[in-house]
Amino acid sequence: MRDFALEKYFSKWEFTAKYHMTASDIESMSLSELLAMSSSKDRIRFEQLWLGYTETYGHPDLRSEIAKTYETAMPSDILCFAGAEEGVYIAMRVLLNREDHAIVTVPNYQAAETIPLDICEVSGVALDEDKNWTLDIDRVKQAIRPNTKLISINFPNNPTGAVLDKERFQALVSLCRERGIYLFSDEVYRLVERDASIRLPQVADVYEKGLSLNVMSKAYGLPGLRIGWIMTRDAALLKKMECYKHYLSICNSAPSEILAIIALKAKDKILEHNRALVNHNAEKLGAFFNEFPEQFQWQRPDGGCVGFPRYLGPKDTNQFCEDLVEKTGILLLPPGIYHSELIKTPQDRFRIGFGRKNIEQGLNVFRDYLLS
Questions:
Q1: Can you give the pTM of this predicted structure?
Q2: What architecture (CATH level 2) is domain 40-266?
């Protein structure tokens, strides 16, 4: 397997940089804060929890709560994983073989490209940078081959924050249905759109060969739980993924499952808080970039808590990001991290995150650096 460039970069900087301004999650909470949201019954269940193995598919109550976040799902349509990354890995390994072909939208989370590339031939379809990172369905259609097995998408997108418009989304689903192609949809930023009216349906709710990936890490702000899942109505495929999971995590952490149940029962309160924080930070970030129009080009993302601004300054963008973290402790993700083997990706953009609290502290240091 290829190096996971993003995680390798984070391994170096994530816990040493003073200002983590490229985080892809929303500010988390303490264990005591989460438990304060629980019912007395669930709190007792957590405190008296038996620390043995758990069910491979996930705790029945957890799968029940997850199913409630979909329009059509039954608990039996859910398979839980140790984070979203295990879900991506298993789905690709189960769905694809050497004779297949896959299509991946770019830019995307690195694993969406590199795992399929380790299995079969893969084509990249670029999001249109000049049209707010939308997806040209005709380009997808042109990339389809007789052996195309899978199309992989990610909306709201990481790193651009783009949300596909509903007409294009429906056209993509129709195209996949017409050709019998699986549609894998990374939906980890769903529910954190700037406007609920642009929110897309979840793929597995509207397509019988759709797979919807989600996780407690992003919109819910609880990455430490390491609880992710896939929803699909393809029962045979779900069983194959469950069997593959036996070789990896086997099962999820028992405490994490109970805490995820508590969080999902309190999801409305958690999401309301998280959306307010993201909106507040987006305003601060927009005002900051407006101070430096000759150095940055910024458009607020449609969803999620990361953006992909263009750097207009005199330095190479990779050098700019490296110089910034070394001199100030401000961590951004340079464009080299979003390098694709499939198509040319923009090398004048960097990823910035705006889901963490106290964004003003980092912006103040950032401002001083730019003015020095």
A1: 0.96
A2: 3-Layer(aba) Sandwich (3.40)
